């Protein structure tokens, strides 16, 4: 392992809403374990404990799972204290440590510390994103929540109309009228704030312009890609992005008994996959190279969904190429080597 000797200690942290369970290891041997509150003050207490144990923070690797909003205190603490923080997906940690029986917070903290020790050569340090990106992430989550609530209410009203008749539907619609109107108003305000935040940062505004120049890609998809990739700083390779979005096909073959067709994996970011699908559908309504590609593959006898998935992949590759070259999409672009 390349960086195996860089860190004398690994600290695994299991995060929950109210508390943090931590386990400190020295060369994979547990030397200290404890529990603190999931607050900035609680993390400052942990820092004092580590100093009492004469632990060098610069040679200690902190590792925890990405739990969304519950990560907020430790991210603030990491930025202030300049610690080596590894923010990893729960699925990755769970599936790299083998079979585990039972579950509790202390054991999970120890497993995270073990993961950090074993795989520290793959350590990807967490770095704070730009202020505008952080604001975009918060706004996107609010938009997602408001949109989900609005959709649920509308679906409920449609079910009432189908099952109980128009009279019951009108009665229910009257009850939810103010709620729906408020949600629509909130959504418009959030989307206006998203646009304003993008305009406030020249780099992000330029990035948004480049992404939306690709046929079929709208402002919603562009904004989400900026939020997801932190302005294409954290994830910018088209193949990795396609894999993460669930549009990259993988072979399913083994020996002579299993000879399946290539297919996409169910382990994917479904939100990104949905947005890419909408882009692929929208692009077919235009006259461009993408539509020509679609018609050509259909004429060859390819399955419709297989071709649409290829379109999703193609859109991502073109989009990433435009971002990498910092130029807008050119309809009649010709590669310099051609």
What letter string, H or E per element, gives the SSE order? EEEHEHEHHHHHHHEEHHH
Number of helices: 12
- Proportion in helices: 55-70%
Widest sheet, order of strands: 3-2-1-4-5
Rg (C-alpha, Å):
24 Å
CATH architecture classification of the largest domain = 2-Layer Sandwich
Beta-strand percent range: 5-15%
Distance between the termini: 42 Å
Q: What CATH first level of the largest domain would be assigned?
A: Alpha Beta
Mean pLDDT: 89
Structural class: alpha/beta
> How many domains is the backbone divided into?
3
Give the strand tally. 7
**Most strands sheet:** 5 strands, mixed
Structure commentary:
The chain has 3 domains: 114 residues, Nucleotidyltransferase, domain 5 (2-Layer Sandwich), CATH 3.30.420; 70 residues; 104 residues, no CATH class. It is an alpha/beta fold and 338 residues long. The chain is globular. The longest helix has 35 residues. A 5-stranded mixed beta sheet has the order 3-2-1-4-5. Strands 6-7 form a two-stranded antiparallel ribbon. The protein has 12 helices and 7 strands. Helix 7 crosses helix 8 and helix 9 crosses helix 12. Helix 2 links the parallel strand 4 and strand 5. Helix content is 55%, strand content 14%.
């Amino acid at each position: 392992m390349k960086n195996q000797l860089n860190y004398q200690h690994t600290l695994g942290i299991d995060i929950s809403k109210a508390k943090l369970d931590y386990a400190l290891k020295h060369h994979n041997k547990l030397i200290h374990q404890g529990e603190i509150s999931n607050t900035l003050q609680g993390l400052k207490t942990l820092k004092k404990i580590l100093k009492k144990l004469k632990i060098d923070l610069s040679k200690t690797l902190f590792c925890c799972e990405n739990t969304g909003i519950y990560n907020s205190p430790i991210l603030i603490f990491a930025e202030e204290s300049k610690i080596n923080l590894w923010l990893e997906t729960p699925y990755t940690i769970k599936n790299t440590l083998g079979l585990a029986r039972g579950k509790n917070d202390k054991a999970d903290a120890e497993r995270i510390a073990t993961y950090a020790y074993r795989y520290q050569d793959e350590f990807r340090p967490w770095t704070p994103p730009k202020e505008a990106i952080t604001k975009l992430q918060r706004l996107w989550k609010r938009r997602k929540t408001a949109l989900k609530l609005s959709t649920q209410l509308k679906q409920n009203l449609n079910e009432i109309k189908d099952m109980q008749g128009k009279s019951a539907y009108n009665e229910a619609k009257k009850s939810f009228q103010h709620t729906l109107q408020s949600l629509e108003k909130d959504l418009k305000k959030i989307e206006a704030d998203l646009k304003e935040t993008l305009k406030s940062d020249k780099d992000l505004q330029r990035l948004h312009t480049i992404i939306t120049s690709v046929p079929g890609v709208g402002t919603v998809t562009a904004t989400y890609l900026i939020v997801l990739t932190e302005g294409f700083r954290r994830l910018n390779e088209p193949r990795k992005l396609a894999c993460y979005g669930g549009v990259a096909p993988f072979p399913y073959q083994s020996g002579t008994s299993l000879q399946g067709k290539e297919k996409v994996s169910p382990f994917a970011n479904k939100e990104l996959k949905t947005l890419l699908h909408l882009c692929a559908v929208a692009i077919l309504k235009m006259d461009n190279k993408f539509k020509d590609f679609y018609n050509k593959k259909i004429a060859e006898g390819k399955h419709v969904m297989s071709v649409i998935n290829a379109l999703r992949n193609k859109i991502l590759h073109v989009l990433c190429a435009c971002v990498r070259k910092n130029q807008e999409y050119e309809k009649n672009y010709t590669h310099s080597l051609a």
